[in-house]
């Protein structure tokens, strides 16, 4: 598919135990359905041609030969299709019976992979019938009219697309101490297919899901898992048909369980994201051991770009969708911010903090962190020296919220009106006070920072920075103004998440009076308040009217930095996520703004103050992000125009 996605499917067919003719028809039905849905890879359950629960029937020639003929029939049915199908069956090789996966495409059998680990405990008796893979000496076998590669040393690669490789393991292989998929991933497999017949027991589905998630994360891979359904024999067990598709630790699709009919789950896996993440941590995942893999080439379909992705794209990727997860995230981040500040205070032997409070979101969150740190250290809240500095754009609403919040906590309050000082500075540098340009705005920001720094010197305090991750990404801060502090507690938190953290604190830790103030702050438009208010005293300078919505810029930031998405893909993802909310033209305009500002404002990030990383995205030059301040944005903009 376009934009680096590959469409995969996990399938579990209706079956009759030992009825290979019926089973092959149901498998072909699912292959045809997958073809109609532009699926590129499909995996079926373990031993799906015969059924997993055949018992001693596996020893009978009639079943084994029937399974082989059924495989050839299924292979013939794939003629003319580029869909890669992975099918389970028993297969005799040199007189031994193996539990195998067969890879089919366009009428051909590309390879056979036998099961590495055979469970032979509790309800499982596979060693009674099957041979472990390490007993296999053959590298090729005659199958139908072809010579087919066989072995656990097979890895499959798209012709001309080295990054698109896949490998196969079978059921118990995933439960082993070191699953074969670990080595397959080291050898470059980005997709891992598991054919399974995992029986059900209480809580086993949770464990199975965690295994799939964990292995996809450990291997930085797409993991596609298919299991046998309720059509298997229920003599002593019940099978549920659990289908799972995971990508790098995230479940993209999961089926219901306990069904008897054909079931197909489809998802689009972001191969570019996996490649990007692997490049980042590649040196720490070096190849170990002496495993050599034979590469089997297959043909990939031409790029297909369906209108709708078979996966959800979270338009607020920094914010968990689940309320419980979101609450836990907010609490954890507040704890990280608080501990980061505590460590800085202990190390520097400073017991006083200086912070500018504007009545806006960022300074409110930073103030909350200082309150929590002082309480943890057992120091009086009065050691927090808050300074509110009304300027030309300050409104009564934000001023009152700032004053009331400070008073509710009994922090030390100082009010410094900066208007006269700024007017004097305009006079000194020859700037017309009626020209409301960037000079007009930045003079106010730098005046405030000067006051904070000098007051910290006077009181022996530490200046707490309030700017957030979104502002750093866009450079929406005044160089040597609000850009500078002695410790920046919000530096790792995007604007969209700041709101939720304050809301969580208001609802869970703050008293009723403070909570009321905080909720009004949450309802206030985002603004630096550097331009005069309207005639009715309302905020006239709204940041999002200038830059575009922060939720869109945070979206671009996350998928660019976490997924490695380029301009065209970012626009494609944004159109999926914000469909019906913003037009494609608006999204493209804001993406141009994002890239221009991200590149041009790197010089501010190159000398940003210390502050804690709390999530997957950080722009600290000492940590995650190292970029020259004079890098050109032209290549990124050109991609949007192509």
Outline of the structure:
With 642 residues, the protein is α/β, with parallel strands linked by helices.
What does this structure look like?
The chain has 642 residues and is of the alpha/beta class. The chain has two domains: 2-298, Carbon-nitrogen hydrolase (Nitrilase/N-carbamoyl-D-aminoacid amidohydrolase); 323-641, HUPs (Rossmann fold), CATH 3.40.50. 39% of the residues lie in helices and 18% in strands. A seven-stranded mixed sheet has the order 13-12-11-10-9-8-15. A six-stranded mixed sheet has the order 5-4-3-2-1-14. Helix 9 (396-409) links the parallel strand 17 and strand 18 (412-415). It starts with a strand and ends with a helix. 47% of the residues are buried.
Q: What structural keywords apply?
A:
Nitrilase/N-carbamoyl-D-aminoacid amidohydrolase; seven-stranded mixed sheet; Rossmann fold; 642 residues; alpha/beta; single chain
Helix count, DSSP H or I runs of 4 or more residues = 20
State the secondary-structure class: alpha/beta
CATH architecture of the largest domain: 3-Layer(aba) Sandwich
Which CATH class of the largest domain is shown? Alpha Beta
The backbone outline, from C-alpha atoms, is elongated
CATH topology value of the largest domain: Rossmann fold
Order of strands across the biggest sheet? 13-12-11-10-9-8-15
Mean pLDDT value: 95
Topology:
Elements: E1 5-12, H1 20-36, E2 41-43, H2 61-77, E3 84-93, E4 96-105, E5 108-114, E6 140-143, E7 146-149, E8 154-158, E9 161-170, H3 172-175, H4 180-186, E10 191-196, H5 204-218, E11 222-227, E12 244-247, E13 250-254, E14 263-270, H6 271-281, E15 294-298, H7 323-348, E16 353-356, H8 361-377, E17 384-388, H9 396-409, E18 412-415, H10 419-429, H11 438-459, E19 462-465, H12 469-474, E20 487-488, H13 495-508, H14 512-522, H15 543-547, H16 550-561, H17 567-577, H18 584-600, H19 602-606, H20 634-641
Parallel strand pairs: 1-2, 2-3, 8-15, 9-10, 10-11, 16-17, 16-19, 17-18, 19-20
Antiparallel strand pairs: 1-14, 3-4, 4-5, 6-7, 8-9, 11-12, 12-13
């Amino acid at each position: 598919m376009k934009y680096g996605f590959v469409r995969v499917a996990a399938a579990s067919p209706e079956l009759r135990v030992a009825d290979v003719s019926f089973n092959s028809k149901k498998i072909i039905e699912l292959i045809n359905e997958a073809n109609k849905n532009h699926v590129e890879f499909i995996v079926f359950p373990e031993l799906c041609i015969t059924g997993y629960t055949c018992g001693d029937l596996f020893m009978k020639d009639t079943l084994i030969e029937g399974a082989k003929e059924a495989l050839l029939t299924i292979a013939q049915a794939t003629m003319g299709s580029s869909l890669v199908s992975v099918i389970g069956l028993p297969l005799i090789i040199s007189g031994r019976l193996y539990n195998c996966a067969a890879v089919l495409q366009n009428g051909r059998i590309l390879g056979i992979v036998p099961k590495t680990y055979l469970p032979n405990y509790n309800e499982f008796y596979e060693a009674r019938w099957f041979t472990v893979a390490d007993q296999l000496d053959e590298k090729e076998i005659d199958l139908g009219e072809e010579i087919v590669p066989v072995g656990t040393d097979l890895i499959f690669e798209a012709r001309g697309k080295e990054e698109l490789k896949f490998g196969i393991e079978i059921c118990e292989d995933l439960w082993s101490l070191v699953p074969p998929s670990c080595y397959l991933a080291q050898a470059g497999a980005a997709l891992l297919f598991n054919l399974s017949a995992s029986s059900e027991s209480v809580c086993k589905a949770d464990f199975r899901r965690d295994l799939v998630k964990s292995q996809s994360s450990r291997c930085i891979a797409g993991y596609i898992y298919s299991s046998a359904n309720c059509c298997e024999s229920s003599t002593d067990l019940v099978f549920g048909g659990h289908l799972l598709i995971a990508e790098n630790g995230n479940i993209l699709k999961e089926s219901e369980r306990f069904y008897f009919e054909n079931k197909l789950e489809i998802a689009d896996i972001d191969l570019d994201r996996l490649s990007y993440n692997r490049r980042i941590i590649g040196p720490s995942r070096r190849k170990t051991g002496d495993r050599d893999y034979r590469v089997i080439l297959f043909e990939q379909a031409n790029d297909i770009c369906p209108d709708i992705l078979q996966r959800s794209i979270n338009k607020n990727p920094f914010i968990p969708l689940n309320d419980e997860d979101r609450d836990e995230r907010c609490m954890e981040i507040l704890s990280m911010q608080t501990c980061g500040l505590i460590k800085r205070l202990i190390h520097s032997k400073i017991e006083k903090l200086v912070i500018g409070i504007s009545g806006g979101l960022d300074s409110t969150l930073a103030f909350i962190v200082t309150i929590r740190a002082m309480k943890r250290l057992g120091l009086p809240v009065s050691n927090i020296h808050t300074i509110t500095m009304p300027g030309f754009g300050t409104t009564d609403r934000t001023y009152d919220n700032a004053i009331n919040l400070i008073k509710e906590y009994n922090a030390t309050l100082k009010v410094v009106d900066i208007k006269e000082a700024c007017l004097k500075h305009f006079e000194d540098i020859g700037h017309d006070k009626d020209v409301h340009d960037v000079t007009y705005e930045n003079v106010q920001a730098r005046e405030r920072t000067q006051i904070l720094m000098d007051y910290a010197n006077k009181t022996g305090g530490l200046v707490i920075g309030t700017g957030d991750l979104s502002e750093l990404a866009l450079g929406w801060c005044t160089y040597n103004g609000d850009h500078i502090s002695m410790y920046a507690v919000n530096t790792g938190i995007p604007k969209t998440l700041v709101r939720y953290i304050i809301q969580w604190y208001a609802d869970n830790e703050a008293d009723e009076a403070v909570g009321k103030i905080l909720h009004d702050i949450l309802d206030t438009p985002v603004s630096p308040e550097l331009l005069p208010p309207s005639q009715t005293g309302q905020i006239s300078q709204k940041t999002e009217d200038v830059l575009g919505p922060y939720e869109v810029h945070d979206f671009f930031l996350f998928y660019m930095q976490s997924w490695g998405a380029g301009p065209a893909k970012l626009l494609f993802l944004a159109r999926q996520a914000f469909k019906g909310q913003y037009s494609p033209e608006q999204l493209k305009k804001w993406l141009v703004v994002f890239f221009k500002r991200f590149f041009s404002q790197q010089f501010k990030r190159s000398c940003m103050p210390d502050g804690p990383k709390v999530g997957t995205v950080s722009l600290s030059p000492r940590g995650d992000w190292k970029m020259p301040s004079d890098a050109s944005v032209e290549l990124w903009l050109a991609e949007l125009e192509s």
